[in-house]
Fold this sequence. Notes:
Layout: E1 2-9, E2 12-21, H1 24-35, E3 42-53, H2 55-70, E4 74-78, H3 82-91, E5 98-100, H4 102-112
Parallel strand pairs: 2-3, 3-4, 4-5
Antiparallel strand pairs: 1-2
Amino acid sequence: MLNMYTDTIGDMAVVECEGSIARSDEATRLRETVTSYTHAHVIIIDLSEVNYTENTGLAVLAFLQRWARENEIQLKLFNPSAFVRHQLKCAGETLQFEFASLQEAMALLTQADPQMHWLQKGSELRHSAA
């Protein structure tokens, strides 16, 4: 089962995923969620809590990367679990994806919303809106 949490920070969208991307309905929800951010300049998909994905999930991630390029949006995958990273590598899709380190994700967050300057190295990606 895939759970998603989304947040918009300035011109950036963060889509946090949790669970698995194994069924077509889960992949479809991820695709629809990400592609709804047509006005974002940067979209980060946090995969740190995704413990399993199948070909359907890999295919939707590849689709989203193409979609983002066509729409001049930076799409970054953040912290894929070891299992997901291994699957991406085995599928040969790794070269097409941009991965954001924690430091880069924090910099992107601060750039998207200068009021978030308090974010420091080692902080979690999650941001609770006040």
